[in-house]
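Standup notes, structure subgroup. Blocker cleared on the uridine-diphosphate-N-acetylglucosamine input:
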Amino acid sequence: MKLGVVVLAAGQGKRMRSRLPKVLHPLAGRPLLAHALDTAQALGAARICVVYGHGGDLVPRRMADYDCVWVEQAEQQGTGHAVRQAMPSLQDMDRILVLYGDVPLMQPATLQRLVDTAATTELGVLTAVFEEPTGYGRIVRDETGRVLRIVEQRDATQAEQRIDEINTGFLVADRARLDNWLARIDNRNAQGEYYLTDILALAVGDGVEIATSRPRTRDEVCGVNDRVQLATLERIFQRRQAEDLMRNGVTLADPARLDIRGRLHAGEDVSLDVNLVIEGNVRLAAGVSIGPNCLLRDCEIGPGTQIFANSVIEGAVVGADARIGPFARLRPEAVLADAVHVGNFVELKKSQVGEGSKVNHLTYVGDARIGRDVNVGAGTITCNYDGVNKHPTVIGDRAFIGSNASLVAPVEIGEEATVGAGSVISHKAPDGKLSLTRARQTTVEHWHRPRKKPKAS
Ligand code: UD1
Ligand code: CA
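Run returned:
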């Protein structure tokens, strides 16, 4: 059975009040549409066809990483019209499943159940019972419970408006039957649109039994129409991720104060304090602990490493049993070996730091290669930029850099070399020796502090 998926994503989303097409607004850091496409992929769809419209080709361009067919619906003439645009690209499919680009929390398992329920018939619809059904299409059944049709809110009679079973919009149909039904719908209704929902009455007329199934939770079928709903769904999504983490052995100080905008892989006994933001792809090995108010983007942290409060780590790799922060900043291509200590107000960029080395206070290290067991004193700066080009600094094993040194790159500090505090080093500091560039201290014997002149009376 070849399953083709149609994702409806042409609508403008007026209530977003945005220049960005609605389906490109991010939920957990990724476009709403990406969530729908992931769901379609998880179902093993043989082909995914996205109907886009509002915003022109910005939507397909932004989503270029996804393997799908893009069909433009230049004028939005209704959901039935939208699905019709996709059908020519799906002629070799057996079944068609219709999804919505602005409904991001739908679970693959729910759609799989819909597909399975409808396996013995030619049309299946996902319905739900809402206490407050206003605005939705209603499922009209006969006395025996058989589905007869869907009536839209604006076309419904008073009696029909009291029906609390609603159309979620998700449906699955036999491909050939769907072609036939879509060719027969018209736009003679309150909105002058081609309603996809009108295929139900046509199916019943053709003697087709309509299967229905329900989602496990209401969130799954909630769409985003404005930014308030977007924020509500964001919280639900974040809560789901937090609970998955806790079930997999991660301790969260507060599951409501963790935001994952991307993917977090966390080992056993990882512990996360409040207000952590994860972006991109982050890997935390077993036993990692992260203090409050940290941002981690696209990085990898080794087992047992502790990250203290207010640290920002981006594009870096940290080994095992390291200590980072508080207030540390690791920038792209910072690669730290095991047991490295990086302290407060330290910035590291495109640099390697060897095992056991310490960079503990108020330091900038850029384009450097630091060996093992090196001590970089407070206030050290690698002067890596001459205003035009970047240059490297190399520091040998067990070197000791005194406080407030400027290392003017390109420059090399030898193994076990010592650099005196306050030095400006622009030539190689030899192995095992003390190098310093400090002026000698002198004391001026007969100097007096100036005194205030007596006031003229
Ligand atoms: C639709 C259903 C309604 C259901 C509700 C669930 C129809 C006629 N009605 O109503 O029964 O209860 O969804 O939310 O199907 N779209 C296009 N092209 C179009 C029109 C819509 O791509 O020409 C897309 C929209 O971007 C949106 C989705 O289809 O993602 C639903 O369209 P919308 O206008 O919101 O339908 P509703 O009136 O809410
Ligand atoms: Ca809607």
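Discussed briefly. Residues 273 and 299 are 18 Å apart (CA to CA).
Next: hand off to the docking folks.
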